[in-house]
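Predict the assembly for these two chains.
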Amino acid sequence: MTAAPAAFKAELIELLPSLRAFARSLAHNPAQADDLVQDTLVKALANVDRFEPGTNLRAWLFTILRNHYYSQLRKAKREVEDADGRFAARIAVRPEQDGSMDLEDFKIAFAQLAPDHREVLTLVGASGCSYEEAAAICGCAVGTIKSRVNRARKKLSDLLGLEEDSQGVQGEPRLEDIANV
Amino acid sequence: MGAPAFCLPKMGRKTPFALVSWGLIGKMRQKDEMETLVSKKPLDEGRSEKPRKGAPSNHKALITRNLRLAFGEVVSEPVPDRFMDLLERLDTAEEKPS
Protein backbone atom coordinates (compact mmCIF):
# COMPACT_ATOMS: atom_id res chain seq x y z
CA MET A 1 0.00 0.00 0.00
CA THR A 2 1.43 3.36 -0.95
CA ALA A 3 1.35 6.13 1.59
CA ALA A 4 -0.80 9.09 0.63
CA PRO A 5 1.32 11.82 -0.94
CA ALA A 6 1.43 15.03 1.05
CA ALA A 7 -0.32 16.97 -1.71
CA PHE A 8 -3.18 14.49 -1.75
CA LYS A 9 -3.56 14.72 1.98
CA ALA A 10 -3.46 18.50 1.94
CA GLU A 11 -6.18 18.66 -0.68
CA LEU A 12 -8.20 16.10 1.22
CA ILE A 13 -8.03 18.22 4.37
CA GLU A 14 -9.10 21.23 2.37
CA LEU A 15 -12.13 19.34 1.08
CA LEU A 16 -13.20 18.04 4.50
CA PRO A 17 -15.67 20.87 5.24
CA SER A 18 -17.62 20.38 2.02
CA LEU A 19 -17.44 16.62 2.38
CA ARG A 20 -19.01 17.00 5.81
CA ALA A 21 -21.70 19.28 4.42
CA PHE A 22 -22.53 16.80 1.68
CA ALA A 23 -22.70 13.99 4.22
CA ARG A 24 -24.99 16.08 6.41
CA SER A 25 -27.42 16.57 3.56
CA LEU A 26 -27.66 12.83 3.06
CA ALA A 27 -27.65 11.61 6.64
CA HIS A 28 -29.76 14.23 8.52
CA ASN A 29 -28.16 13.31 11.76
CA PRO A 30 -24.79 15.00 12.37
CA ALA A 31 -23.23 12.01 14.13
CA GLN A 32 -24.17 9.63 11.33
CA ALA A 33 -22.91 12.17 8.81
CA ASP A 34 -19.51 12.37 10.44
CA ASP A 35 -19.33 8.59 10.58
CA LEU A 36 -19.89 8.62 6.83
CA VAL A 37 -17.06 11.11 6.43
CA GLN A 38 -14.79 9.00 8.56
CA ASP A 39 -15.50 5.85 6.54
CA THR A 40 -14.96 7.86 3.36
CA LEU A 41 -11.54 9.00 4.56
CA VAL A 42 -10.51 5.47 5.43
CA LYS A 43 -11.66 4.21 2.03
CA ALA A 44 -10.03 7.10 0.18
CA LEU A 45 -6.69 6.55 1.86
CA ALA A 46 -6.88 2.81 1.35
CA ASN A 47 -7.50 3.36 -2.35
CA VAL A 48 -5.25 6.31 -2.91
CA ASP A 49 -3.37 4.46 -5.65
CA ARG A 50 -6.59 4.26 -7.66
CA PHE A 51 -6.94 8.00 -7.72
CA GLU A 52 -5.44 9.62 -10.80
CA PRO A 53 -3.55 12.71 -9.68
CA GLY A 54 -4.76 15.83 -11.41
CA THR A 55 -8.34 14.60 -11.71
CA ASN A 56 -11.20 15.87 -9.62
CA LEU A 57 -10.58 14.82 -6.02
CA ARG A 58 -13.79 16.38 -4.76
CA ALA A 59 -15.89 14.36 -7.18
CA TRP A 60 -13.92 11.24 -6.26
CA LEU A 61 -14.51 11.74 -2.53
CA PHE A 62 -18.17 12.65 -3.00
CA THR A 63 -18.60 9.48 -5.05
CA ILE A 64 -17.05 7.31 -2.35
CA LEU A 65 -19.19 8.92 0.32
CA ARG A 66 -22.35 8.60 -1.71
CA ASN A 67 -21.78 4.97 -2.63
CA HIS A 68 -21.03 4.17 0.96
CA TYR A 69 -24.18 5.94 2.10
CA TYR A 70 -26.38 4.00 -0.31
CA SER A 71 -24.79 0.67 0.50
CA GLN A 72 -25.43 1.32 4.18
CA LEU A 73 -28.96 2.34 3.33
CA ARG A 74 -29.53 -0.89 1.45
CA LYS A 75 -28.06 -2.87 4.29
CA ALA A 76 -30.19 -1.17 6.87
CA LYS A 77 -33.21 -1.31 4.57
CA ARG A 78 -35.14 1.11 6.58
CA GLU A 79 -34.49 4.71 5.92
CA VAL A 80 -35.90 5.55 2.54
CA GLU A 81 -39.17 6.34 4.23
CA ASP A 82 -37.28 7.15 7.31
CA ALA A 83 -38.84 8.27 10.53
CA ASP A 84 -37.06 11.53 11.07
CA GLY A 85 -37.80 12.56 7.52
CA ARG A 86 -41.11 11.88 5.99
CA PHE A 87 -43.28 11.25 8.99
CA ALA A 88 -41.91 13.09 11.97
CA ALA A 89 -41.81 16.42 10.26
CA ARG A 90 -45.32 16.88 8.99
CA ILE A 91 -45.24 20.52 9.75
CA ALA A 92 -46.83 23.10 7.54
CA VAL A 93 -43.89 25.23 6.55
CA ARG A 94 -44.67 28.43 4.80
CA PRO A 95 -42.53 31.38 3.82
CA GLU A 96 -42.92 34.73 5.52
CA GLN A 97 -44.82 37.52 3.78
CA ASP A 98 -41.62 38.95 2.33
CA GLY A 99 -40.74 35.66 0.70
CA SER A 100 -37.94 34.85 3.08
CA MET A 101 -38.15 31.81 5.29
CA ASP A 102 -36.67 30.45 8.40
CA LEU A 103 -33.66 28.29 7.66
CA GLU A 104 -34.75 25.72 10.24
CA ASP A 105 -38.13 25.40 8.53
CA PHE A 106 -36.33 24.94 5.25
CA LYS A 107 -34.20 22.17 6.71
CA ILE A 108 -37.28 20.37 8.01
CA ALA A 109 -38.82 20.39 4.56
CA PHE A 110 -35.54 19.41 2.94
CA ALA A 111 -35.23 16.43 5.27
CA GLN A 112 -38.54 15.12 3.95
CA LEU A 113 -37.17 14.72 0.44
CA ALA A 114 -36.02 11.35 -0.84
CA PRO A 115 -32.24 10.81 -0.66
CA ASP A 116 -31.72 11.13 -4.41
CA HIS A 117 -33.45 14.49 -4.36
CA ARG A 118 -31.47 15.74 -1.37
CA GLU A 119 -28.36 14.61 -3.08
CA VAL A 120 -28.82 16.41 -6.40
CA LEU A 121 -30.03 19.59 -4.76
CA THR A 122 -26.98 19.65 -2.54
CA LEU A 123 -24.55 18.84 -5.32
CA VAL A 124 -25.93 21.22 -7.90
CA GLY A 125 -27.63 23.86 -5.76
CA ALA A 126 -25.24 24.22 -2.86
CA SER A 127 -21.84 22.68 -3.41
CA GLY A 128 -21.41 24.27 -6.82
CA CYS A 129 -20.95 21.06 -8.79
CA SER A 130 -21.64 21.28 -12.50
CA TYR A 131 -24.33 19.01 -13.94
CA GLU A 132 -21.52 16.96 -15.45
CA GLU A 133 -19.76 16.54 -12.11
CA ALA A 134 -23.01 15.64 -10.38
CA ALA A 135 -23.71 13.07 -13.10
CA ALA A 136 -20.27 11.54 -12.61
CA ILE A 137 -20.75 11.42 -8.84
CA CYS A 138 -24.19 9.87 -9.06
CA GLY A 139 -23.24 7.53 -11.89
CA CYS A 140 -25.98 8.64 -14.25
CA ALA A 141 -26.57 10.75 -17.35
CA VAL A 142 -26.46 14.54 -17.29
CA GLY A 143 -30.06 14.63 -18.49
CA THR A 144 -31.11 12.49 -15.56
CA ILE A 145 -29.47 14.93 -13.16
CA LYS A 146 -31.23 17.88 -14.78
CA SER A 147 -34.67 16.35 -14.59
CA ARG A 148 -34.03 15.08 -11.08
CA VAL A 149 -33.05 18.58 -9.98
CA ASN A 150 -36.25 19.95 -11.46
CA ARG A 151 -38.39 17.36 -9.76
CA ALA A 152 -36.59 17.88 -6.48
CA ARG A 153 -37.11 21.64 -6.62
CA LYS A 154 -40.75 21.15 -7.44
CA LYS A 155 -41.21 18.73 -4.58
CA LEU A 156 -39.45 21.05 -2.18
CA SER A 157 -41.60 23.97 -3.33
CA ASP A 158 -44.64 21.87 -2.54
CA LEU A 159 -43.33 20.93 0.87
CA LEU A 160 -42.57 24.56 1.59
CA GLY A 161 -46.05 25.59 0.57
CA LEU A 162 -44.71 27.85 -2.16
CA GLU A 163 -47.32 26.85 -4.70
CA GLU A 164 -50.28 28.89 -3.56
CA ASP A 165 -48.31 32.07 -3.36
CA SER A 166 -47.56 32.05 -7.03
CA GLN A 167 -51.24 31.78 -7.88
CA GLY A 168 -52.71 33.80 -5.11
CA VAL A 169 -54.75 32.18 -2.39
CA GLN A 170 -58.39 32.34 -3.32
CA GLY A 171 -61.07 32.90 -0.77
CA GLU A 172 -61.31 29.86 1.42
CA PRO A 173 -58.80 29.44 4.23
CA ARG A 174 -56.48 26.52 3.79
CA LEU A 175 -56.63 23.56 6.11
CA GLU A 176 -53.31 24.47 7.67
CA ASP A 177 -54.60 27.90 8.54
CA ILE A 178 -57.57 26.44 10.32
CA ALA A 179 -55.57 23.74 12.01
CA ASN A 180 -52.90 26.04 13.33
CA VAL A 181 -55.28 28.31 15.23
CA MET B 1 -54.19 2.17 14.48
CA GLY B 2 -52.49 5.44 13.68
CA ALA B 3 -53.23 6.42 10.11
CA PRO B 4 -56.69 7.53 9.13
CA ALA B 5 -58.25 4.96 6.82
CA PHE B 6 -59.62 7.23 4.18
CA CYS B 7 -58.45 9.41 1.36
CA LEU B 8 -58.18 13.12 1.91
CA PRO B 9 -59.78 15.34 -0.67
CA LYS B 10 -57.21 16.57 -3.15
CA MET B 11 -56.87 20.06 -1.76
CA GLY B 12 -55.64 18.75 1.55
CA ARG B 13 -52.31 17.53 0.21
CA LYS B 14 -50.32 19.34 2.85
CA THR B 15 -52.69 18.73 5.70
CA PRO B 16 -50.95 17.92 8.94
CA PHE B 17 -53.03 14.85 9.72
CA ALA B 18 -52.61 14.98 13.44
CA LEU B 19 -53.83 18.53 13.68
CA VAL B 20 -57.07 18.33 11.76
CA SER B 21 -60.15 17.15 13.53
CA TRP B 22 -62.38 14.55 11.93
CA GLY B 23 -65.34 16.83 11.94
CA LEU B 24 -63.54 19.45 9.95
CA ILE B 25 -62.48 17.03 7.24
CA GLY B 26 -66.01 15.71 7.06
CA LYS B 27 -67.25 19.19 6.35
CA MET B 28 -64.65 19.87 3.70
CA ARG B 29 -65.51 16.62 1.93
CA GLN B 30 -69.16 17.40 1.87
CA LYS B 31 -68.44 20.79 0.49
CA ASP B 32 -66.29 19.35 -2.26
CA GLU B 33 -68.99 16.92 -3.22
CA MET B 34 -71.52 19.72 -3.36
CA GLU B 35 -69.28 21.72 -5.62
CA THR B 36 -68.84 18.77 -7.92
CA LEU B 37 -72.57 18.35 -8.24
CA VAL B 38 -73.21 22.00 -8.83
CA SER B 39 -70.39 23.05 -11.09
CA LYS B 40 -69.44 19.80 -12.84
CA LYS B 41 -65.93 21.05 -13.19
CA PRO B 42 -62.75 19.76 -11.61
CA LEU B 43 -62.46 20.52 -7.95
CA ASP B 44 -60.48 23.53 -7.02
CA GLU B 45 -59.31 24.32 -10.48
CA GLY B 46 -55.98 26.04 -10.33
CA ARG B 47 -55.20 25.03 -6.82
CA SER B 48 -55.10 21.27 -6.89
CA GLU B 49 -53.95 21.15 -10.51
CA LYS B 50 -50.47 22.45 -10.09
CA PRO B 51 -48.49 23.55 -13.09
CA ARG B 52 -46.41 20.52 -13.98
CA LYS B 53 -43.29 22.37 -15.02
CA GLY B 54 -40.44 23.07 -12.64
CA ALA B 55 -40.71 25.46 -9.75
CA PRO B 56 -41.09 29.14 -10.72
CA SER B 57 -37.85 31.07 -10.84
CA ASN B 58 -38.45 33.02 -7.64
CA HIS B 59 -38.93 29.71 -5.84
CA LYS B 60 -35.75 28.40 -7.39
CA ALA B 61 -33.85 31.39 -6.10
CA LEU B 62 -35.33 30.98 -2.64
CA ILE B 63 -34.47 27.29 -2.60
CA THR B 64 -30.94 27.85 -3.85
CA ARG B 65 -30.37 30.56 -1.28
CA ASN B 66 -31.45 28.32 1.57
CA LEU B 67 -29.54 25.32 0.23
CA ARG B 68 -26.38 27.41 0.21
CA LEU B 69 -27.07 28.74 3.69
CA ALA B 70 -27.58 25.24 5.08
CA PHE B 71 -24.53 23.89 3.28
CA GLY B 72 -22.45 26.90 4.30
CA GLU B 73 -23.39 26.41 7.93
CA VAL B 74 -21.74 23.01 7.98
CA VAL B 75 -18.80 24.11 5.85
CA SER B 76 -18.01 26.88 8.29
CA GLU B 77 -18.06 24.58 11.30
CA PRO B 78 -14.60 23.73 12.58
CA VAL B 79 -13.54 20.29 11.36
CA PRO B 80 -13.70 17.89 14.32
CA ASP B 81 -10.35 16.73 15.67
CA ARG B 82 -11.28 13.12 15.08
CA PHE B 83 -10.65 13.55 11.36
CA MET B 84 -7.23 15.08 11.74
CA ASP B 85 -6.36 12.39 14.28
CA LEU B 86 -7.58 9.74 11.88
CA LEU B 87 -5.46 11.09 9.04
CA GLU B 88 -2.42 11.15 11.30
CA ARG B 89 -3.03 7.61 12.45
CA LEU B 90 -3.62 6.25 8.96
CA ASP B 91 -0.50 7.95 7.74
CA THR B 92 1.72 6.41 10.36
CA ALA B 93 0.04 3.04 9.89
CA GLU B 94 0.76 3.24 6.18
CA GLU B 95 4.35 4.31 6.54
CA LYS B 96 5.33 1.52 8.91
CA PRO B 97 5.33 -1.45 6.53
CA SER B 98 7.51 0.30 3.90
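Chain A touches chain B through 57 residues (CB under 8 Å). Residues 121 and 138 of chain A are 12 Å apart (CA to CA).
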